[in-house]
Amino acid sequence: MELKIVGAQALLDEGLTDTPVHVSVHDGVIADVGAERANGRTLDAAGLMLLPGIVDIHGDAFERQIMPRPGVDVALDIGLVDSDRQAVANGITTVFHGVTWSWEPGLRGAANARAILAAIEELKPRLAADTKFHLRHETYNLAAEPEVVD
To answer: Are residues 58 and 46 part of one domain?
Structure first.
């Protein structure tokens, strides 16, 4: 089945254009541009822009969800799911959470980095965005190098 999106300005290789776009519902990929096809549903997106998914290659906004202020901890699963929903609502379809693996304890410490990595792996089936773990290894944290490499 396909979804036909009409009325939007679509960002294509040649720039913004006013043309119907057919998207495969199965994998979310553009199946056709400009052609008149009768199958599937039609979505009227008049006045909107149709853009490809945004890739956030280094985001740390999730930190506000898991620790909104010093000393206030939110469960990792709740914080990561909330961060996921905010990303997708803003057009981000792939997110690399920039996680610091530092020698200092707390939000940017090794124990938290391990916990975030485990939580992302466990939550993947529930997350709408393609969520990745982007390790920020502090260069002065030489003692952690063997574990980080592993």
So the answer is: no
- Tally the domains of the chain: 2
Write out pLDDT tens, residues 58-104: 988 899 999 999 889 999 999 999 999 999 999 999 999 999 988 88
Task: Decide if 99 contacts 135 (C-beta within 8 A).
Answer: yes
> Same domain for 79 and 20?
no
Q: List the beta strands (DSSP E) in the chain.
A: 2-6, 9-12, 15-18, 21-24, 30-33, 41-44, 49-50, 54-59, 92-101, 130-137
- State whether the Cα torsion 25-27-30-31 is positive or negative: negative
Cβ atoms within 10 A of the Cβ of 18, count? 10
Global model pTM greater than 0.85: no
CB environment 50-86: b (16+ within 10 A), e (fewer): beeeeebeebbebbebbbeeeeeeeebeebbbebbeb
**Which DSSP helix (H) or strand (E) runs through 29?**
none
